[in-house]
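name: query_chain
kind: protein
chains: 1
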Amino acid sequence: MKAVILAGGLGTRISEETSLVPKPMVEIGGLPILFHIMCIYAQHGVQDFIVCAGFKQHIIKDYFYNFHRNHSDITYDLMTGNIEVHCSNSKPWSVTVIDTGLNTMTGGRLKRVRHLLGAESFFMTYGDGVADVDISTSLELHKKNGTLVTATAVKAPGRFGDFCMNGDRVTGFAEKSEGEKHRINGGFFVIDPKALDLIENDDTIWEQEPMRHLAKLGEISAFLHDGFWQPMDTLRDKRYLDDICKSGNIPWLSKERITQ
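structure:
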């Protein structure tokens, strides 16, 4: 299966970092958060990635263009120009980086890569959040329920908008609430490509019209996740994730070995 990662936004709330690089390329533990997200999926056997780039998209392309060289021990013969690779920490991944536009909304970005997805369900998440989500079990739920979309529902503070739920189905969406934690959209979707037919154009926000319509039809399953989940919305979030990486106990990378 393919994993689509939305990585084209401006990241204005963490502008201290995104003035230089796109938000998914902001480093935690010395590596871009985008790479961490890909490792989450790789732990579940996913090796085919589509990155929906936009803002400073050339930086993402350059990173993967130079990935093999930068993750290998190399001898350069300056006379002949020959290169000998001694040891490589590269990954057996296929990474497609698509420029989906500077101002395109989340739904529009998905629509722009629809031609690369075929008829099989695919994974999708945002390029600015990590979690120890059981991707494989979310796929099992998706197949069992037969809905067009399975969304990971996480617990988070009231600064986020809530899912309205009936059992394991999302029935609607509520405004941001205060106090007690509620279930919200944590990303890490499983999506049937047919759901993308609801996306009209570049201005369509996936979390608005398409998901609201799908919820009314009973076509969104909720995969409940009570483990670690953390978005990187602010510089404080970035520092928090950085500290976790430095501790060596990285909850979202229990299986995948990550090296600089």
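note: The radius of gyration is 19 Å.
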